[in-house]
Write a structure and sequence with these properties.
The chain has helices at about 10-15, 20-25, 35-50, 55-85, 90-100, 115-120, 130-160. By secondary structure, it is mostly helical. Helix 3 packs across helix 4 (about 55-85). The protein is elongated, with a radius of gyration of 25 Å.
């Protein structure tokens, strides 16, 4: 019986990540509003960019992709929060005006001039403080984890190639200035 599987360098390259790819999609960080195919393309692009060799390097590249994917979700959350907050501007102003006039429960809400609504919407281009705190917390966490994993991957790749890799890296970033 002959040897099974890929025999040529080209066929070996073509199937190089098959087991990894199929194993990784089982743990895909995809939520119902996202597409698995989009994640798979994103993951493949990140893995191709890092050109990992072996399981450990591939795991690090996959972790980086997952963190980047999740950071993108935080950005989408920020946009959704701002959009929802801006969409309620007119109704919030109507309720506030009716409450102030003592007519909140006495009929239709007052009309608000469009320019007033637009002015107030500009004040809502940042998320409310509780959402902004969440966004900043998650974005910072994912960013730190991504940098740490990238440094670990780079060190692994350097050692594999016989190059010097630093034993420690120092992150000089700190909290934002007041």
């Amino acid at each position: 019986m002959g040897k099974r599987g890929p025999n040529t360098p080209e066929s070996k390259a073509a199937v190089r990540h098959n087991a990894i790819k199929h194993g990784l999609t089982a743990d895909a960080p995809v939520i119902p509003t996202e597409l698995l195919a989009d994640w798979e393309r994103f993951l493949a692009g990140i893995i191709a960019s890092y050109e990992p060799v072996g399981r450990l390097e591939t795991e690090h590249a996959t972790t980086i992709a997952s963190l980047m994917w999740r950071r993108r979700r935080v950005a989408r959350f920020e946009v959704a929060v701002i959009a929802a907050n801006m969409e309620t501007t007119e109704e919030d102003l109507q309720i506030a005006q009716a409450y102030g006039a003592g007519t909140l429960s006495k009929g239709p809400l007052p009309s608000i001039p469009p320019q007033t609504v637009a002015q107030h919407q500009q004040r809502r281009i940042l998320p409310p403080p509780e959402d902004l705190d969440k966004i900043m917390k998650y974005e910072a966490h994912f960013h730190r984890m991504q940098l740490q994993t990238q440094h670990e991957l780079e060190a692994l790749q350097a050692r594999r190639k016989g190059e010097h890799s630093p034993l420690a890296r120092v992150d000089f970033t700190g909290p934002p200035l007041p």
